[in-house]
Amino acid sequence: MCTEQQPLLTDFHPIKGPVSGGTSLTLVGFHLDAGVDALLTITDMADDTLSVNCVFSDHRRSNDSVCVTSSSSRPFNGSIIQLTIDGIVVPHTVPPHGFSMLSDPTIHSVVPKETIVR
Q: Is the pTM here over 0.85, yes or no?
């Protein structure tokens, strides 16, 4: 007997990352390993032409899976999260916090400027 496993996305973390991409985003839910091809898309709520992909490694797990964000052309704060598995949008109960793409961090100074080496 074969039963169909309906994936459900319930949460994710962290909720922000740099525009240069490379953020490991952990998705939490049920049956996230269903299907073959999975893609998470993060789209700016204010400008739906601005989106980034979060690409999964070869191995997804049922209750939590990790994907890595691509880069964005500019920062954005509000987002729409959409998980697609085998071309079908996965239902979700994702909290309203969304994901923010922030400007890359910059280093303005290093303190202390000297140290003792033993």
A: no
